[in-house]
Structure formats: C-alpha cells, structure tokens
Amino acid sequence: VGNPYLLTYNINFRKSGWGARVGVGYNYSSSANNDGITDRISKINDKQVRLGGEKAFSLSKKWSAGVGLDVLFNDNNDHTKSTVTSFDTVVTDTKSKVTSYGAGPMSWLRYHISDKIMIGTEASFYYLTGDQDQTITVTRREFTVGPGSTIVTKQTRSKPEISQGVISLPVVFYLAVKF
C-alpha cells in the first residue's frame, strides 16, 4: 500500500482542536530493459499535494481522532519509449501527463505511545477530476517494392477528461512525531 503523501504536517489549537494540514509527495521511477530485441525505457515523475482543515478530538489519555476536509492537486508525468528491432524496426514513444484536482473528507485515529510519539492510521474518500494529455508516436520502416525502404511515423494524441473516486481505507500504520 503506497501513501502518495510522504510528508504530512498538522497544526491544531489545543483548546478547540481545529487545525490545518498539508501533505506533499513525490514519486520518481526510472527503468530500462533491453533483451536484444526490445529496448524499453520508462520514466515516471509524479507529484501530489493536499491541503485541508481538520478537527482533532481527544478520546482518552492514549487515543485521539480527527476528521477534516482536504483539497488535492496531482501532477503525473510518465514517458515510455520502446524500440523493437527487427527487419521493420518499430519505435513507440508514449508520453502521458495527467493533471487532476479534487477534494474529500478524511478521518484519522492515533495511539499515543508517549507525549511526542504516536502511531496512527487514516481513511479518506477523495473525488478527483482533471485532464489527461497523451501522445503516442509510432515510427517504423516499411519496405516497398524495389530497393529501399520508407520511414513511416504515425502520431495519435488524445486529451480525455478524467474523474475518479478514490477510497483509502485504514490499512497501514503511520509514525507521527509531535513537535
């Protein structure tokens, strides 16, 4: 289970429990594979940000909970280039950029190990909408009757709108440190 918000910061008033939170995350992945016939290079560059307000509650001396509303922004930029070497070598270059934003409710539960260290979990339901810009370019060599060959390039571009509901159940524990 991955958490797109690697770092989360909360600040709450002690008396009222009202506060604000911010979460940021970044995911970069690069891979290359070449088996002599197919050469594939992929790069994934994803950024996530969430801002929100929350209300914290003390359930007991060791337990606390909170509920809130978050606003999200995601920017996913993925690029894959694949070359299949044969008598009609084909190069496929796929670029996909997804920009989305949304909002939704969240809740958390924490156990206080000490005054400054807690473990906890959270659940959320986010609705996201946005745009995807995808370009696929296929270049291949076509052989014609007679000597020589022709390089043919076809490009397909699509810009679909996307929307999704994302439910994150409390399936992992997080370490929280109080400053």
Task: Outline the structure in words.
With 179 residues, the protein is mainly β. Helices cover 0% and strands 77% of the residues. The chain has strands at 7-12, 18-34, 38-58, 63-84, 90-112, 117-143, 149-158, 161-168, 174-177. A hairpin with a 4-residue loop joins strand 3 (38-58) and strand 4. The chain is elongated. It starts with 6 loop residues before the first strand and ends with a strand. The model has no long low-confidence stretch (mean pLDDT 90).
Mean pLDDT: 90
How many E strands? Answer: 9
Main β sheet profile: 9 strands, antiparallel
What share of residues is helical?
A: under 10%
Radius of gyration: 24 Å
Order of helices and strands: EEEEEEEEE
Q: What percent strand?
A: over 45%
Structural class: mainly beta
Query: Oligomeric state of the chains?
Result: single chain
- End-to-end gap: 27 Å
Total helices: the number is: 0
* Shape assignment: elongated
Low-confidence stretches: none
